[in-house]
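job 3f2a | input accepted
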Amino acid sequence: MKKSYSEWDILQKKLSGAIESTNFFSFLMNNRKYITITLPYYEYLRGKVFIEDMRDTFPDEVPFQFDMGTLLYMLYDDFLMQIKKGAPYEQIVTYLANGERKYFQKKTKQKRIMKPLTKHVFEFQTVEDELDTPEEREGENAYLEIRMKESEILRGEILLHDLSSMMKDIIMTVEEMIAIIYLDFIEHVKNVGNSARVQKSILMHIK
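job 3f2a | predicted structure (207 res):
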């Protein structure tokens, strides 16, 4: 079964010949697409607060158009740069697998129930229930559209295809990968606070 690594499925379209090879280079360089990133609503708000803090700390250096979409794009672009510099695939697989388990897998809790065997005989049985976390409830997600070059989406698809044999039963898309990168960044911000060091690292990318 062919895997789709993003909502645009550029890699499979290329491999199947749906995109003409002779025009593929200009097709990638001249076209941009919107992809939709799903985030837990609180983590989305936390990112907005981080940006507002940056504006307060560096009022003359943060561009007016800098927003959540820009932040996610920059984090993804920096991630791809680390790949281009030769980050070990084993390290990338561990990072993405840990992020998938931490941010996307549903948590469960065990409870014991009495299961009737006969009319007068019961036994205890342990079952697992999914936790009803805020992220899993309807209306608790934010949906962000990011505009980027198709070549950048394709680069993420190719990376996931390269890693697929090492990812075991984990099936991931570019959109989910970007969400993991962002959520990991926000987790770091929450752990260390809105430090000037973290803000300056983002400003360096803006410049």
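job 3f2a | The CA atoms of residues 12 and 18 lie 8 Å apart.
job 3f2a | closed
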